[in-house]
Amino acid sequence: MMTQYALKMPHVVYSGVGALENITSILNKEVTKIVIFTDKGIVGAGLLELPLAWIEKTGIPYELLDELPVEPSCDEAQETIDRFKVMNADFIIAVGGGSVMDIAKLASILMTDQYGVRDLLENPSMAKKCVKTLMIPTTAGTGSEATPNSIVLVPEKALKVGIVNEAMISDYVILDAEMIKKLPRKIAAATGVDALAHAIECFTSKKANPFSDLFALEALDLILNNIEAACDDAEAMDAKNAMLLASFYAGVAIATAGTTAVHALSYPLGGKYHIPHGVSNAMMLVPVMKFNEPMCKDLFAKAYDRVHVKGEAKTEDEKSKWLVNRLDEIVKHLDIPTRLSDYNVPKSDLEELVASGMAVQRLLVNNRREVRAEDARALYLELL
Question: If phi over 0 gives left and psi between -120 and 50 gives alpha, with beta otherwise, what is residue 130?
């Protein structure tokens, strides 16, 4: 447990039924032009229409950047930001999932030609907030709306890398379950398990603290009791709203504690094989938690006590085992692929995977049980 810790959150967060109506009060008279970051999938699904109706009521001119790539490379992110810079906007609204919000956050600190995305890979602290942001997530999972992080692919390393800068924390967030009502089950499942990974990883992180525990445990409680209904039933709006809150809470926990080996070892899977981020985390989740269990039994037992389960576990061992088994049940129930063979990952790539995974020391150092190269090799082998 850390002896000093800080809580870093967005300035204002609106949540609940009809929360989108707060757009009109957020866009005050000081805003002269808006750029909306989104993607073709959001536009095609009609989801942009909901916030756009409120934006248009303000009469403030806006432009769309709607060709954002899924899980972008650092160079693709830079291309989008370069287009944004010539639009001369003084407010950003991001409507989308993690990739959309991540690029929008980078744009908010890159209104300069003095440095770009690749420079921030080397020294993320050099950038400062230039443009205020509003994040409207369309998935309940990434938590990007709450974090100071932006994840980009570095092609030559075949690895996803996190750029972390407090200036990227959103100014405003709107959590409205109407934005995730029509989310396809496959996407809801993958992003939901991403949030689940955030919650349990932050709770067991070496950097865990009273602030992160507060949000991570609440997120874990909400996810374990709502994720299946939220994914299975399009009309389960209470469960969907709970998942949006849980995703945000888990994002707050990331900002103060950080994720661990699940995310560290999943990054090469997305970077080289383009496995969706939530799916790669789902693959690593149970193997890593089983690996961590000897060092985390007390924490797993505490989580068991917190999530209001009507189980029969009495001892620390029983409670810990229940929690790990519950994670496994959720991944299986949601039909998320858990074999690397599903993505044509050959065994011959094992050593490259190990090297790439071990390079993510930024996260591995947070893991309560030390992860050595032979441990990473064994964990990847479980998935091959």
Answer: alpha
